[in-house]
Amino acid sequence: QVLLVESGGGLAQAGGSLRLSCVAPRNISSGNALGWYRQGPGKQRDLVATITSGGSTSYTDSVQGRFSMSRDKNSYMVYLQMNSLKPEDTGVYYCNSKPPYSSWGQGTQVTVSS
């Protein structure tokens, strides 16, 4: 059973920063692209950031220039540095492979106040 564990969420003011972490087990992270997904209130879960096995990153337009994704292959950790946070960044953040594995972690809640 794949076990993805996200952490680091919390309450931030607009303009603030948070750093999310995720343990992505070897059987899901090894050789695969990984992504951070966000599910806003009443919305579907969307991909916001991707990192390839080679370390190349890409971001959805709404977070480009503000979010930075990284990975540590040795520890199977994945990170999302979120700066200049906006209220619309509020949601539950999940990590998973891209395309996503069928099993998801519990996610970590990010709430940005204006």
How many strand units? 10
Proportion of residues in extended strands:
over 45%
Which stretches are poorly predicted, pLDDT < 50 over at least 5 residues? none
Structural class: mainly beta
Outline type: globular
Number of helices: 1
Rg over C-alpha atoms, rounded to the nearest angstrom: 13 Å
The helix-strand sequence is EEEHEEEEEEE
Helicity range: under 10%
Largest sheet: 6 strands, mixed
Q: Tell me the strand order in the biggest sheet.
A: 2-10-9-4-5-6
Averaging pLDDT over every residue, what do you get? 95
Distance between the termini: 39 Å
Account of the 3D structure:
The protein is mainly beta and 114 residues long. Helix content is 4%, strand content 47%. It has 1 helix and 10 strands, in the order E-E-E-H-E-E-E-E-E-E-E. It has one helix spanning 26-29; strands spanning 5-7, 10-13, 18-23, 34-39, 45-51, 57-59, 67-72, 77-82, 91-97, 108-113. The chain has a 6-stranded mixed β-sheet with strand order 2-10-9-4-5-6, with no helix packed on it. A 4-stranded antiparallel β-sheet has the order 1-3-8-7, with no helix packed on it. The radius of gyration is 13 Å and the shape is globular.
Summarize the structure.
With about 110 residues, the chain is mainly beta. It is built from 1 helix and 10 strands.
List keywords for this structure.
114 residues, mainly beta, 6-stranded mixed β-sheet, 4-stranded antiparallel β-sheet, 10 strands, 4% helix
SSE inventory with pairings:
Elements: E1 5-7, E2 10-13, E3 18-23, H1 26-29, E4 34-39, E5 45-51, E6 57-59, E7 67-72, E8 77-82, E9 91-97, E10 108-113
